[in-house]
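Example record

One chain of 454 residues, shown exactly as stored in the release files.
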Amino acid sequence: MTIVATRIDTTTGNGTVLYPGDPGWDEARGGFNLLVDHRPEAIALPRNEREVAAAVALARSRGWKVAAQGTGHNAGAYAGLSGMLLVNTSRLTGVEYDLANHRVRVGAATRWGDVISPLSDRGFAALHGSSPLVGIAGYSLGGGIGWLSRKHGLQASAVTAIELVTAEGHLVRTDAVHEPELFWALRGGNGNFGVVTALEFEVQPVTRMYAGVMFFPAERSVEVLRTWTGQLPSFPEELTTWATILHVPPLPEIPEPLQGRSLVAVMGVFLGDEADGRALLEPLRALGPEIDLFGLQPPAAIADLAMDPTSPMPMCSATALLNALPDSTIDAVAGLVARPDSPILMTQFRHLGGAAGRPDPDGGARDCLPGEVVVYAVGVVPVPEAEQPLLGALTALRTMVLPHRAGEYPNFVEEPADTSRFWGQDDWTRLRRAKALYDPEDLFRGNHHIPPEA
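Predicted structure tokens for this chain:
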């Protein structure tokens, strides 16, 4: 194997390395889920590729494995960081725009919120998900489903190049021509093949979209969800809708009409004009939403459409890809999660299909997802005694949807899992062969680990 790479000189400094007890230790090891309490052997805080390579060399010299973390989302999927060096990439940011070619290049820890508004101002939209706080790299390397996925596919397939430091300390820029097998594996295989320092991806020309949310009282959840699921087969790929049952906390930053309420919401983005968008959603609007916020919007307006939390919190979640969401399942789920005393704070159903469900011949290891709907449910654990009731409710939810389960979306699986279950046998074998080719000593551990082929 010949790697087209740049050898990095690591003799001029290792950058910042923290050890337990050092100032900043807890902040550097923390993730978005405050229940996750990882304790690595040390934490590197590189400022550039050279310092990433130095961190990798340090880990090899100490006999440690290497895990990378940018914004700290999905950190719970690591099976612990004992015996590992955590490479905190939060200093590797920066954005470069090449919009003549519909391209953006970002540092490994750049968040979606850093590019959504600048792109919108220039008449473009990216394939981001529900939260502007999520890191672009982790989201992309795991697949990436969002508001434009039914029309334009997963974000992993929009990635056009990835830069990373390998186990040998090489800086590699991989794309469809250079190291294509590594490029394929990274787009879905996340951090198992090296420490990503930057990536480049394609964006879409979009100036306006018909987007918004309708709110109904939670006691109407069955009616709203049945109407919504009944429409899904007729929705064009230009329309993506999500239905959410949520219990809104009474926080001052939340609009007063929503504070402390239990609601069911239908959110949507339509890549078309307002008249067509209104016609598509008319059966839902005919139900008489209490609040209707749909209208023509610039792309930046959908960044916070899903109202995801903005601060780290202690939480537990459950997820599944579903082939169907029949009335009987809707009734059971609503009975569990829509009542005001439910420990599940939010239960969201996202419509899949379209380009997100079709294999992409130029895509990576995660080029599509099975199923019609993905369900994601989450609750908060403000005190330790709240955890068991929440876990019991999440287990009950999993049981309710199990007959219609089509698989899982790894970016939503926030606990250690048998990673092989996320792929078919052929792709799993191919991933393990790529791992054996580029990291035969299994130095790197992604949050869902892929071991090398023996």
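Notes: The longest strand covers residues 209-217.
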